[in-house]
Structure formats: structure tokens, C-alpha cells
Design a protein that fits this description.
Layout (H helix, E strand, L loop, with lengths): L4 H4 L5 H19 L3 H20 L16 H31 L4 H20 L5
Length: 131
């Protein structure tokens, strides 16, 4: 039920809020340094990551499909695949931030972040839950 306390608490919004706040801070630092294009890319990547975290904030577990089989092994495989994707996405987001603050080219990492976002969006739409 949507009125349940666990769905009303601010605790589930902390991670998305921090990611978005970090995006604003990093963009401000980069813009102050005269790198407006990189600032916009970093802000877009971190805003996308915040949206990803916000979308998954109420998700206790991913639905299991026939592609993973059934039972305990299927749940383990699905959780492992989700964790791998989450870690790789966080690493790409961190690479955009670090490379941007170092003054290096962020283009390859921005493309990877866009690919991760597009893949997740298509998967969410295809999974039947929608966005």
C-alpha cells in the first residue's frame, strides 16, 4: 500500500538526492574552471544516475523471468547480474567525475554512461514494468 511508512520515508531518497547534489557541485566546479561542456556532461551523467537510483528505490527484488530458470539458483544469478551492472555503472559515473575534475576528456565515459542508461531503460520497458 502506498501509505505504508516504508514508502513515505525520506530514507529512500537519500542516495538519489546525493547523486544529484554531487552532479550540481561537480558541474559548478567545472563551470567555474571554464569547462562548460564538460560540466554539462558531468551533470547529465550524474542526473541520469540519480534517476536510475530513484527508479529503483522501492524495488525489494527484481522479478524473475524464465531466462534465469527458477528457484534459488535463478535468484542468485539475477542478483549477481544486477549487482554487476550496478557496480559497473557506478564505476563509469565515477570515471566521468574524476576525468572531468582532472581536466581530461570525458567523451568515452559519457558514451558508456549513455549506453548503460539506454540499456537499462530498454530493459525496464521490455520487462513489462515500464518507466
Amino acid at each position: 500500500m502506498w501509505l505504508a511508512p516504508e514508502h513515505r520515508g525520506i530514507g529512500r531518497w537519500i542516495a538519489p538526492g546525493l547523486a544529484l547534489a554531487a552532479g550540481v557541485v561537480v558541474a559548478a566546479v567545472l563551470a567555474a574552471d571554464g569547462r562548460g561542456g564538460t560540466a554539462l556532461v558531468a551533470l547529465a551523467v550524474l542526473a541520469g544516475y540519480a534517476a536510475h537510483l530513484a527508479y529503483r528505490r522501492n524495488e525489494p527484488a527484481l522479478p524473475i523471468s524464465e531466462g534465469f530458470g527458477s528457484g534459488y539458483r535463478a535468484r542468485t544469478h539475477l542478483k549477481s547480474a544486477a549487482m554487476t551492472g550496478d557496480v559497473l555503472t557506478a564505476a563509469v559515473v565515477a570515471a566521468v567525475v574524476v576525468q572531468g575534475l582532472r581536466g581530461a576528456d570525458v567523451t568515452p565515459y559519457a558514451w558508456l554512461a549513455a549506453l548503460a542508461g539506454a540499456t537499462y531503460t530498454i530493459s525496464a520497458l521490455a520487462g513489462g514494468r515500464g518507466i
